[in-house]
UniProtKB/TrEMBL annotation:
Coiled coil spans: none
Protein name: (+)-lariciresinol reductase
Family, as annotated: Belongs to the NmrA-type oxidoreductase family. Isoflavone reductase subfamily.
GO MF term (any one): lariciresinol reductase activity
E.C. numbers: 1.23.1.1, 1.23.1.2
């Protein structure tokens, strides 16, 4: 049997990154996690890194302000996965990856790089609105650098992180579902795709040694989880045994209300607009030159929307 690739995870203490570390270890990869000296005395992050070490990961010291340290880290492995932050209400550091691309190019040994993507496919968002298009534009800058450097890649388009979207019944600004009321975005009938964050990590690690995903985009579209906001609300209503009061926010009102929000919130709101009013995640066929994760890996028993939502009861 072929050897499993050694993996370096950057941003391993993040919301998605910690799940990537767990999945990489769980699937039997030698797993290296970048420890940035900048995290200083952030006790939660240091404790998390130590717990990865106890589970068998290797911690590697390296900093984005020390290029040689990145080159040295990258030289230890076959595959690099970056999960650096890219949500403005938390932090957005997507372009820092250009330094990582340079390090991977210089090191010359990496068989696959997975940049921090894990959302809407930025290649399909050429006409995205301001200010949220910055997320897609920056991710495309990184893609171009990867491709110009000739680095083998896989781009993972993970659709909606379930915690953000199911947790809030698809309403921006909410991550816990109400038992009384929901505001539908428009008619609430546009389909979106919700994925358990641990499943995103499982599928992502599955792709790294798979020749079928080399230099391709992999969309994660678990078939049972392609649902409209109304359908998500119905699942929640079934679980709580009660109907919610519903109101609706027409598109023009949603867009007008954005003006009162700060920049970071506006970025997030335009993403919700594309997903929930325009259906940007599910309104296209995957087509040639890309793959779909649940078809590639039918052995993964992904979490259904209903099972994910039981945690909020
Ligand atoms: P986090 O906000 O949890 O941050 C991840 C890591 O980024 C941190 O742990 C940290 O790594 C690293 N980081 C932050 N600032 C810096 C810096 N200045 N220098 C170096 N490293 C830094 O990220 P998320 O898990 O929320 O996001 C990961 C990806 O997932 C992004 O591409 C994002 O766009 C996407 N995403 C998609 C969503 C969806 O619904 N589809 C929802 C949320 C995110 P360290 O361990 O070194 O401290």
């Amino acid at each position: 049997m072929a050897m499993k690739s050694k993996v370096l995870i950057i941003g391993g203490t993040g919301y998605l990154g910690k799940r990537l570390v767990k999945a990489s270890l769980g699937q039997g990869h030698q797993t290296y996690v970048l420890h940035r000296p900048e995290i200083g005395v952030d006790i939660e992050k240091v404790q998390m890194l130590l717990s990865f070490k106890q589970q068998g990961a290797h911690l590697v010291s390296g900093s984005f302000s020390d290029q040689q340290s990145l080159v040295n880290a990258v030289k230890l492995v076959d595959v690099v996965i970056c999960a650096i932050s890219g949500v403005h209400i938390r932090s957005h550091q997507i372009l820092l990856q250009l330094k990582l691309v340079d390090a991977i190019k210089e090191a010359g040994n990496v068989k696959r790089f997975l940049p921090s993507e894990f959302g809407t496919d930025p290649a399909r968002m050429e006409n995205a609105m301001e200010p949220g298009r910055v997320t897609f534009d920056d991710k495309m800058v990184v893609r171009r650098a990867i491709e110009e450097a000739g680095i083998p890649f896989t781009y993972v388009s993970a659709n909606c992180f379930a915690g953000y979207f199911l947790g809030g019944l698809c309403q921006p600004g909410f991550i816990l579902p109400s038992k009384d009321h929901v505001s539908l975005l428009g008619d609430g009938n546009q389909k979106a795709i919700y994925v358990d964050e641990d499943d995103i990590a499982t599928y992502t690690i599955k792709t790294i040694d798979d020749p079928r995903t080399l230099n391709k985009t992999v969309y994660i579209r678990p078939p049972k989880n392609i649902l409209s906001q109304r359908e998500v609300v119905q699942i929640w209503e079934k679980l709580i045994g009660k109907e919610l009061h519903k109101s609706s926010i027409p598109a023009h009102e949603f867009l007008a209300s954005m003006k009162d929000q700060n920049y970071a919130e506006q970025v997030g709101l335009t993403h919700y607009y594309h997903v929930c009013y325009e259906g940007c995640l599910a309104n296209f066929e995957i087509g040639e030159g890309a793959e779909e994760a649940s078809k590639l890996y039918p052995e993964v028993k992904y979490t259904s929307v209903e099972d994910y939502m039981k945690r909020y009861l």
